[in-house]
Each structure stands twice: as C-alpha cells, then as structure tokens.
Design goal:
142 residues; alpha+beta; Deoxyuridine 5'-Triphosphate Nucleotidohydrolase, Chain A; five-stranded antiparallel beta sheet
Length: 142
C-alpha cells in the first residue's frame, strides 16, 4: 500500500520513507519553512501537498518527541481533509519558531478498521470538549 503525495506549493517538502514501525510504513513530515507559533490559539501549519490514500486506509499523525513545547492536536487525516492541502494543527503555551527542515511529526498509513472507533469518538466531541482540551494542553505545557 502506498500514499500518493501531490505538491501544490513550490516550498512543500514531500515525505520520504524513513522507517518501519508497527508493521506499517512510517514517514517523517518536515517543516517546509520558517513558521511562528502563537500562544493561546490553534496554529494551522500548511504543508503544501495533498494526499491520495488507498481505499480502506487512513493516515495517523504521531507527535515527534523532540522536547519542544508545542503539541499537535489532530491525530488523523481522514477522507474529508485529504482532498485539500494537508495541514497540522498545533498549540503552544508561548511564542515559538519552527525552523525549516525540522521534523514536525511522523505519519503512518493504517487500515481504517483498526482506528474506526477512535475516529468516531473524535467526531462526536462538542466544541466545549475541544476548548477544555486546548486549555488543559496550554496549562500542561506552560
């Protein structure tokens, strides 16, 4: 199984194979340009490419443990957000700069049957639960 990456911006860095994890291919997502993350808000980081997934698969986002104060808050790229240029949502307790070439995250192609219950739970969260999660993360990493 493979994922097709289509560059939509000249500055995008399309993922390359980096390692095997959990019996699936895992890829690094590299920050394509200098980005400033602002505190107390959700920062959407555009990656400048689109993805085409095989039928029955989903892409899981895994936080890269780099000792950085920011946290990625979206865990999956699902059918509704792979048709547009990919972005990652990040929160941080204070202003932080992401350098070009820095590893942002790892992504992994997984069968949708293995994560279906988790995804359904994510879509049923109401706005208040999302706000509480954001506040918790800001205080936890602040």
């Amino acid at each position: 199984m493979s994922v097709d990456y289509i560059k939509v911006k000249d500055w995008s860095i399309v993922p390359t194979k980096s390692e095997i994890c959990f019996d699936s291919k895992c890829f690094n997502i590299i920050n394509p340009r200098l980005i400033t993350l602002l505190p107390s808000r959700i920062n959407h980081i555009p990656l400048g490419f689109q993805m085409t997934l095989p039928i029955g698969y989903i892409v899981r986002i895994k936080q890269h443990l780099s000792g950085k104060p920011w946290k990625i808050i979206n865990e999956y790229l699902t059918a509704e957000n792979v048709l547009t240029p990919v972005h990652i949502s990040i929160i941080t307790p204070y202003e932080t700069q992401l350098q070009p070439g820095e590893i942002l995250t790892h992504i992994q192609l997984q069968p949708i049957t293995g994560v279906l219950n988790s995804i359904e739970g994510k879509h049923t969260l109401n706005a208040w639960a999302q706000i509480k999660k954001l506040i918790f993360c800001l205080f936890r990493y602040g």
